[in-house]
Amino acid sequence: xxxxxxxxxxxxxxxxxxxxxxxxxxxxxxxxxxxxxxxxxxxxxxxxxxxxxxxxxxxxxxxxxxxxxxxxxxxxxxxxxxxxxxxxxxxxxxxxxxxxxxxxxxxxxxxxxxxxxxxxxxxxxxxxxxxxxxxxxxxxxxxxxxxxxxxxxxxxxxxxxxxxxxxxxxxxxxxxxxxxxxxxxxxxxxxxxxxxxxxxxxxxxxxxxxxxxxxxxxxxxxxxxxxxxxxxxxxxxxxxxxxxxxxxxxxxxxxxxxxxxxxxxxxxxxxxxxxxxxxxxxxxxxxxxxxxxxxxxxxxxxxxxxxxxxxxxxxxxxxxxxxxxxxxxxxxxxxxxxxxxxxxxxxxxxxxxxxxxxxxxxxxxxxxxxxxxxxxxxxxxxxxxxxxxxxxxxxxxxxxxxxxxxxxxxxxxxxxxxxxxxxxxxxxxx
Length: 430
Description:
- It holds the Pfam family Bestrophin_2.
- GO terms for molecular function: chloride channel activity.
- The chain crosses the membrane at residues 101-121, 133-151, 300-329.
- With 430 residues, the protein is an all-alpha fold.
- Among the domains are: 20-71 and 163-284 and 344-368, no CATH class; 380-430, no CATH class.
- Helices cover 75% and strands 0% of the residues.
């Protein structure tokens, strides 16, 4: 008996060891591509190569400091972060961008200290005046400089945050419209379903290349669209807008229910809003007069700073001026850097996530429908009011009598005046 029980348990064990959902989806996707390749499908070959390249990019994105996971957050919150940040100061891009203005401020400080040292030693020419200024001037102007820098940084951060949220919305709406399309586009139109799953990731790729100068859209779309479709996109003047037009035609051709079509069109409207918002950020910077005034005020302030410190700090004026300049110039540099956020945000990773999620939805849709019994399920029965609306009063009564189900409820619904009436005996929901 025990031996038989062990055999029964061993036979049942493989059924319990199912791989995770994402692994099954990936296996299903690759298997489908392999079967297509065996049939000679060139697009499948390109897509399989794209899956391999996407896998490599996914591994690389895990090392991208801009894309966080749980391990990155642990490091980010670590108590050793201060020492790590100081140790990486020389590798900082912000510091590298400040080399020239810092050199200028330090050069002015060295000049002021040297002139005042010569005057104190009596070696300076008689025509050389003192370079010292009253430090009260800086107490009167420091608040204005602070306001300029704070407003500049806050305005730049708002632009960065808006771009981040819009790209997050692109990702979410891409998942949503594909899920809706796979659910509502009829099963007898598999070409339209596949077309939807190609063109939704194409929008994120087109938007990324539209916002970046160093991106090749034709290369990005390889393995995503058919070669002829790539050529059509490249011929368009406004490529993201063209992709949206194709998606709208897919929805129209799919002849989905009106309510589902409205929901899918709302997703396209969100895509259009994100496109317009990103273009607004890219093409309209913070008012240039404000940027120029902030830069001029700060450089004049830093130029005069050594003259205010030299009388009390002596040689220490040089490192002190360098330190203060690093703080102020660093804040201004960060504001300028994040003012145009699309070169900073990980758009490659976001658009890659769109493609990966769409492929997974496409691969797992049939499995999900089968799990709920919806794959081969009969259509839902019509309510009494729907029968009247579709067939008319007499035909609805005849259909109900032929079904031999819910006759009392349907008869109450198809009253003499043709108005649908609720009945407690009705089998179908109103």
